[in-house]
Amino acid sequence: MPKVTDTYERAYEACGVIAARGLNPTVKTVAEFIGTNSPAIISPAIKDWKQSLAAESLRRLEIPEVPERLVESTIALWRLAIEEAQLTLAKEKSAMAEEKVQLNTLVGKSEAAYQAVQQDYAAYRERTERDADAWLARIGRLEAEKKQLESEHDQVQQALALARETNAALTGTLEENQRTQQRKQSEWEEKFDRDHAWHLTRIAEERERAKQEEVGKIARLEEALALSRQHVATLNGYLDTSATATGELRGELRAIKEEKTRLLKELETLHSQLTESLQQGFEKEKKLIEAVEEMDRQREELSHLQSLLTKKLEEVKNLKARLPLPKPSK
Predict the structure, then answer these.
(1) In sequence order, which residues have a C-beta less than 8 Å from that of residue 171 and are 6 or more positions away?
(2) Which of 5, 168, 285, 325 is 20 to 30 A from 294 via CA?
(3) How far, in Å, CA of 219 to CA of 214, rounded?
(4) How would you label 202-230 residue by residue, b for 16+ Cβ within 10 Å and e otherwise?
């Protein structure tokens, strides 16, 4: 039995009023009568009213005192009610059949959509599992790369610390080598100046002694002019040779000074190169060794030049010793 509401009660009462007017109560006439269009409530009310009217008519047919006209009217109304009910039932069956077809179609579509969703879900799940496996593998690789990078970072830090220690040691070594080189350079310059002064003094002394000897020789050579001229010529040749040797010596001294200047410039250049090389990592040790070897080579060249100077002085001395002395007059 439908739920009794105000609309249901008014629709139920309206059925009796409409029937009393000689009309058949329908959803349209009842809705117009009560002013509310609610078929879902009006239709059950009409159905209940007709069932109630039929039951009441049957009950009255059993009473003998009921007039025949009323009975006929009731039978006609009952037939109308039955026809209306059959018509409503046919409409409802047709509507239900159509709704059933629609529901079957909807169920088919729903099942197809469900199957499609299931397939999409299975494909999505399979793809998700593959992606998850790929991500897990990638995460594993990234973890391994991270560990390798951390290991390499530690190695780089250790190498950097070692390089800093080596840099400090090489810097100390370079400074010590520079101090040693400066000290040796000072010693070489002092020794060169002393040797140069000593050689100049010796040359001056030799000239003075030769001059004094020449004065004595002139007195003796006046007796033997021819011999004296020969000795004078020889002595002049000796003096020319000495002057030439002295000029060569001075030229060599200038060359030595120029070489010293060049070596000092090269030492400064090497120092600049070594300073820059200290910033280049492990290459600075190799360059420092090359610079030290270059300084040794230059020291050997300087020593060689000093040896050449000593040799030249010995040659001058030997040349002087080989010059013939004038024979004394008888």
Answers:
(1) 278
(2) 168
(3) 9
(4) ebeeeeeebeeeeeebeeebeebeeebee
For tokens 């006929």, the residue is 72
pLDDT digits (tens, 9 = 90+) for 227-271: 757 764 775 776 577 567 657 758 876 886 888 788 788 868 866
Q: Is 37 left (phi over 0), alpha (psi -120 to 50) or beta?
A: beta
Element (H, E) at 1: none
Residue among 233, 252, 231 at smallest CA distance from 315: 252
pLDDT of amino acid 236: 74
Per-residue pLDDT of 293-310, as tens digits, reads 887 888 888 888 888 888
Which two structure tokens, joined as six digits, stand for 32?
A: 């117009």
Q: Which two tokens stand for residue 184?
A: 């040796």
Cα–Cα dist 15/276, whole Å: 116
Quick one: which of 323, 129, 325, 146 has its CA closest to 245?
323
Q: Which of 48, 20, 50, 16 is nearest to 34 (CA)?
A: 16
- Close Cβ partners of 224 (under 8 Å, ≥ 6 residues apart): 329
